[in-house]
Specification:
The protein is of the alpha+beta class. It has one domain: Alpha-Beta Plaits. The protein contains 7 helices and 4 strands; from the N terminus they run E-H-H-E-H-H-E-H-H-E-H. The longest helix has 11 residues. It binds uridine-5'-diphosphate and magnesium ion (MG).
Length: 138
């Protein structure tokens, strides 16, 4: 059984897409193990997006990710990391496959509705950033 970290970003949370997005994960045999609302801070962003700090889009990414509440969750299931990324679709919603979360709900390459871990190593690292061990129900 694999676990992954998902964030519903400020654009999707603000437009009340949270329930619809979680429903898609649950309908695909992914199980919630942890869930919370929070506001990302620049410090939290620099931990979570450590691999992107030097990228040209990083300042606008942080401005967006700190602009309003986000939903953080841990989802578990068979091939959860790959499955969630497939359900989310491509980073750029214009390139996201029809029926994916980003195709349906994202606004732009930056304001793209959801985040999901991209490897087992990053999933473990990211889950640890957002959740205390006592908050995860495995
Ligand atoms: N991003 C951006 N501009 C880009 C590429 C990415 O603003 O040209 C943002 C976007 O919100 C994306 C996040 O940075 O989700 C992390 O980028 P990554 O390449 O890891 O995409 P993801 O794994 O989220 O699909
Ligand atoms: Mg990524």
């Amino acid at each position: 059984m694999e676990s992954t970290l998902v964030l519903i970003k400020p654009d999707a949370f603000g437009k009340n897409y949270t329930g619809e997005i979680i429903k898609r994960y649950e309908a695909n045999d992914l199980k919630l193990q942890a869930l919370k609302l929070l506001k990302m801070t620049p410090e939290l962003a620099s931990k979570h997006y450590v691999d992107h700090i030097e990228k040209p889009f990083y300042p606008s990414l942080v401005e967006f990710m700190t602009s309003g509440p986000i939903v953080a969750m841990v989802l578990a299931g068979e091939n959860a990391i790959g499955k969630v990324r497939a359900l989310n679709g491509a980073t750029n919603p214009e390139k996201a496959e029809a029926g994916t979360i980003r195709a349906d709900f994202a606004e732009s390459v930056t304001c793209n509705a959801v985040h999901a871990s991209d490897s087992k190593e990053n999933a473990a690292r990211e889950i640890d950033i957002f959740f205390d061990k006592t908050e995860v129900f495995a």
